[in-house]
Amino acid sequence: MNQNQLMLPVFVGGTGRSGTSLMGDLIGSHPAFHLPAHENKLISERAGLRDLVRDLSGIPDLLRRHFAVLHFYARAQKVRQFAFREEALNDQVRTRMNLHGQPFQEAFEYIQRQNPQANGSIHAIGQGFGIANFDKCVNELVKKLAVHIDQNGIVDTDGLLRPFFVTRQFDRAEMLVIARDFLCDLYGAKSQLRWVDDTPSNSLAVDFLAELFPDMRFVNMIRSPTDTISSYVKQVWFPSDVKLAEQYISSNLLAAEKLTGTLPAHQTLTLRMEDLVEQPEKTLEMLAEFLDVPNEFNQKLVKSDAAHIGRSKNDPEIQAVLSEDLKAWMARHGYA
Questions:
Q1: What is the per-residue pLDDT across 14-62, written as a single tens digit (0 to 9) for each?
Q2: Exposure winner among 43, 76, 90, 214, fewest CB in 10 A?
Q3: In this structure, what DSSP letter does residue 216 have?
């Protein structure tokens, strides 16, 4: 395994609806990188490696360690495969897409609400890595962590905990090595190239990502908050509440700005989606220089008509909820 390349990943982050997926596709289109799956939910998101490292190297609590492993494994199973586990429900999703013209997420949401106990996901990464490889890496990680798996379980305040994962206490350095090896094995099975992850919440975990991969690079995607708010309230995965969207996006942008400010200048690059769309050649040259590669990105992936730049700049409902902190952030980043 060419460990040197696998140890040089590129993480993309942002609020979501800010060009993170497009940036992931652009970097993944370069011959020096590969992007097997969008948004690896097992790194910086809840119940991912970040939480696993924290909980298994922190308080020596038997139950905390059990739930850390259990939640990681459950999360991995959740994002293993796309759509519902019951094929009959997937047929219903396809029917709504074909007969009602609904996009997948809307059709999935409708069927999920009709069947709240059904096990399914609107996002999956297992197929991108290869199901066999994904299962192998997850199972091997669990084996490294659990010194014993009690299939009979124990009974505690939370009821019957079965199976019950018994782990030893790790120090943080050990857990970082285990997490790093898991990702190198997961990504390295398909390619020895540098890899890319474009999970939006990476922007809130750059300190952890730099600890995990000291030579990583981070691309922070930003977009006009008014356009981002407008986009958020139209998604099935967010409430249709403009004020809530403003609060969520504002807190994310301010936290990301503070965290990225702690990284060395050579390790992070903030790009505006507007610049990527309106000045693609110049922006991609900046990206190439930052990643120390020739500019061989597929510029055709950038489509200005799909970006809806400035569509909500003067929306009175959105303007009415903008906080002073967010307005100050907008001024610092050229959105005043």
A1: 998 999 999 999 999 999 999 999 999 999 999 999 999 999 998 889 9
A2: 214
A3: -
Residue matched to tokens 């298994």? 56
| Phi, psi for residue 59 in degrees, rounded to 5 | -60, 130
Say if residues 185 and 134 touch (Cβ distance below 8 Å): no
What domains appear along the chain, each with residue ranges and CATH number? 1-36+192-336 (3.40.50.300), 40-82+123-190 (no CATH), 83-121 (no CATH)
Let me know the angle formed at the C-alpha of 250 by 207 and 79, rounded to the nearest 5 degrees. 60
Residue 104 pLDDT greater than 80, yes or no: yes
d(CA 41, CA 5): 22
For residues 296, 300, 302 and 308, what is the CA-based torsion angle, rounded to 10 degrees? 170
Each residue's pLDDT tens digit, 259-311: 999 999 999 999 999 999 999 999 999 999 999 999 999 999 998 776 678 88
The answer to whether 14 touches 221, Cβ cutoff 8 Å, is yes
| Closest residue by Cα to residue 21 from 309, 282, 276, 281 | 276
Show the tokens assigned to 167.
Answer: 């782990």
